[in-house]
Amino acid sequence: MIMMREISMAGMVSGILGDSHYALRQLRKNLGFTVVAILTLALGIGANTAIFSVVNAVLLRPLPYKDDSRLVVILEQGRNPVAPANFLDWREQNHVFEQMGAAEYWTPNLTSRNNPEKLWALHVSPATVAMLGVQPLLGRAFLPEEDETGKENEVLLSFSLWQSHFAGDPGIVGQSVALSGQTYTVVGVMPRQFKFAPFWATKAELWAPLAFGARQTDRGGASLRVFARLKPGVTLQQAQAEMAGITGRLEREFPGTNQDIEVLPLREKVVGNVRPALLVLVTAVGFVLLIACANVSHMLLARSTARQKETALRSALGAGRWAVMRQFLTESLLLALFGGGAGLLLAIWGVRVLLALGPADIPRVDTVGVDGPVLLFALGISLLTGVVFGLAPAWRGTAVNLSDALKQGERGSSDGLARNRFSGLLVASEFAMAVVLLAGAGLMIRSFFALEHIDPGFDPHNLLSMVVGVAGTEEQSAGHTGNFYKQVLLKVKAAPGVQSVGAINHLPLAGDEWGLPFHVEGRAATRPGEEPGATYRVVFPGYFQTMRIPILRGRDVAEADELGAPGVVVINDYLARRYWPGEEALGKRITFNDPGKNPSWLTVVGVVKNTVRGSWISPPAEEVFLPYLQNREYLENPSPPFAYLTLVIRTGSNPAAAAPAIRAAVHSLDKNVPLSEVQTLDQVVAEATAQSRFYVVLLGAFSVVALVLAGVGIYGVMSYSVSRRTREIGIRMALGAHRRDVLELIVLRGMAPALAGVAAGVAGGLALTRLMSSLLFATPPSDPLTFGAVVVMLSGVAVAASYWPARRASGVDPMVALRCE
Predict the structure, then answer these.
(1) Best CA proximity match to 624, nearest among 608, 600, 637, 601
(2) What is the DSSP string of 603-629?
């Protein structure tokens, strides 16, 4: 029995090797066919492999933390930070989390070097680092006893910061660094791949212990992102239920402080925003591959017809149908493997292009690459593709009538009609999938066009911005910062090429977005937590002029708006219309204090045009602008959140070229002041629309490939059909048919399956494009203009692809055609 099994296995291996050798000889004999088929498959397989490499890195690969499926994030409304006192109560009262930690954004200045530099950093509770389960490369992590009330003079460095700023010094542990003028001790260096947090503050390269101090009872200053690890066996639903109970009790005790708290998986928070777009791209490249398979099926079907005599001879000599089919499938699989190899090379190049074109805010994009799982995917999809495009032609090619085949076959046979029906089905499917792809790309283009024409409320051209920080410098002392920034603005305004200059705490789009609750004078008091809120900006005179934000009514902030002068505020048009509809907002008053406890009322002196805020596509909302020189927190509070301003500089020409002169102007006042985030406003706007532009480029490229393949497919089918019907055409023309009649006949036959595919594609597209509605802006998924343009375009391609074979056929000499066998 064992011997028989070994003989059978040896025979199978021998048969496969024999089929492979024969297939290779056949492919070499038909080199043109082989090259075209391999290139067609390479496009489909390469595109799928490149996109899978992104999907694998972003969606499928676990986060680089221990048992990441149990890590969650706890935020207000799933996106907003929480207050320190709330976090401390949650940590103490819960029974579902193994560990709970918090992180707070921090941007210290590295002042221990010749050139001070702003760093991206986080204050984190020791439990936050511990729950991630990542051990430092050098040194140690923060100790459990260093809780939120303990010391905060220790830091962990990222691998990149250790390399770039400390030359990879192996003795860095124990050394001191000065951050914003304070001394910190390096206790460890994290591994190269470590990044935290993965969805917010993603540029962080330094971590220090979080100390609350007097903020332990603060329920108003929401600045923390809370992370936790579920206990074994605890579900997300159980955690959400317990947090609902805890926050409900705290809300009753402290009204307005614990509303809408959500527990979300950390992985979902990381990839949630980009998942729909990646799934759309996966669908798009899947369609490209299917269209490529249909094209190769056309080619193999035509080739199997030409090889009918060979197939019949093999059958007559005793070869079974399975043996002949195996031979055909072997050729298909070899084509697919060669196409997969070429596609892998295209994918490696494509991944580089994706990384170059892709926006930086796609999560985990730096981990994208062609690794083991991607190679296995490329192999698997190549083998599957070989079976998909090879099975039907192999089945049709072996379904031969020996007598007819040995006599070269009858062209009008029922078998020929079946082949025509199958080819028509392939053409229809190609055009249907091309419709869906082109419709998706068209909708994205329309959406991107709408995005590009959003009015941001300011003129971004010829504008330069840079952050000037004073943390850790002499300028940070109370009472000095206002005068220093005044001098900075005067120096910069005198720099060559500068037309005007202004300053704001947080730049629109590129800066932070603080919100504060306010009260309107004369309105009934609201319950805690239900007060209206506004985006809070602090500006110097000249900001609106420099940004070219129109002042609709009233005036700008002025130099005279200082401490001691009556409090004033400039508001945006949205706030004015919402809270004083049909009235003049000028002269009205608001306060950011409790109106029942000696409030500081601010008089509205100006109303400005609405501008974009933290997001390019967010609808208008309340926004207030307060004079910097009248704001005590910025003038007298030396803490890091108030120790920087963003300059905006309008130049006469290229703003980037003016950056060196502006740097020199600022450093002429104090060379220790770090300048960071130097960028033009055109760059800021481009980054705000970068994701949409990226998806448009990719979908557009895939759609062009699909369009070309669909056109080539129908051209190939029509060319083959014409070559098979040369004798019939000759007879028609010999019997008096005009050239125009033949031309119309062939074009109409070619158009029929294409138009059927277009109709099916429109129906499918109307259903499938709804899945990408979250990616669209001001464009309905069933936009008639887009679908109409796609139908016209594909119909034109079908006419052109059918016309040229028909034109060639109509020019056949009837005498020559009648002699054709």
Answers:
(1) 608
(2) EEEEEE-----SSSSPPP--EEEEEGG
Percent of the chain topping pLDDT 90: 50
Q: What's the N-to-C CA distance of the chain in angstroms?
A: 54
Q: What number is the average pLDDT over the span 590-617?
A: 91
Dihedrals phi, psi of 641, to nearest 5 degrees: -60, -20
What average pLDDT score do residues 274-282 get?
88
> Hunting for tokens 């009837």 — which residue is that?
814
**231, 145 contact by CB (below 8 A):** no
d(CA 184, CA 197): 22
Amino acid at 540: F
What average pLDDT does the chain have? Answer: 86
- pLDDT tier for residue 13 given thresholds of 50, 70 and 90: low
Residue 278 makes CB contacts below 8 A (sequence gap 6+) with 51, 54, 55, 58, 59
Q: Which residue has the tokens 């460095």?
A: 157
- Looking at the predicted structure, is the pLDDT value of residue 637 above 60? yes
99-139 pLDDT, tens digit per residue, is: 999 999 998 988 766 678 889 999 999 999 999 999 999 99
Please list the residues that pair with 644 across neighbouring strands.
469
Instruction: Taking the CA atoms of 281, 287, 290 and 292 in sequence, report the sign of the dihedral they define.
Output: negative
* Cβ atoms of residues 188 and 136 within 8 Å: yes
Which residue did the predictor score with more confidence, 180 or 174? Answer: 174
pTM: 0.83
Encoded tokens for 35: 């090259």
Give me the residue spans of the domains in the chain: 2-57+275-452+690-727+746-768, 79-259, 471-672
Q: What is the pLDDT of residue 505?
A: 94
Helices 372-398 and 275-306 sit at what angle, rounded to 10 degrees?
30
Distance CA 697, CA 365 (A): 17
The span from the CA of 790 to the CA of 666, in Å, is 55
Report yes or no: 119 and 161 within 8 Å, Cβ to Cβ. yes
Question: What pLDDT shows up at residue 748?
Answer: 83
User: How many Å apart are CA 439 and CA 445, to the nearest integer?
Assistant: 10
Distance CA 264, CA 273 (A): 14
- Look at residue 195 and tell me whether its pLDDT is greater than 80: yes
**558, exposed or middle or buried, with CB in 10 Å at 0-12, 13-18, 19+?**
middle
CA distance 207 to 154: 8
pLDDT at position 7, please?
Answer: 47
According to the model, what pLDDT value does residue 774 have?
85
511: amino acid identity, one letter: G
Pair of tokens at residue 519: 């009260």
- The answer to whether the beta carbons of residues 117 and 677 sit under 8 Å apart is no
Number of Cβ within a 10 Å radius of residue 376 = 10
Q: Token digits for 130?
A: 């511990």
Which is nearest to 765 in space by CA: 792, 750, 784, 793? 784
H helical segments located in 530-596: 543-547, 573-579
- Alpha helix (H) residue ranges in 103-222: 126-132, 159-166
Is 625's pLDDT higher than 50?
Answer: yes
Q: Tokens at residue 194, please?
A: 């470590």
Do 198 and 122 contact (CB within 8 A), yes or no?
no
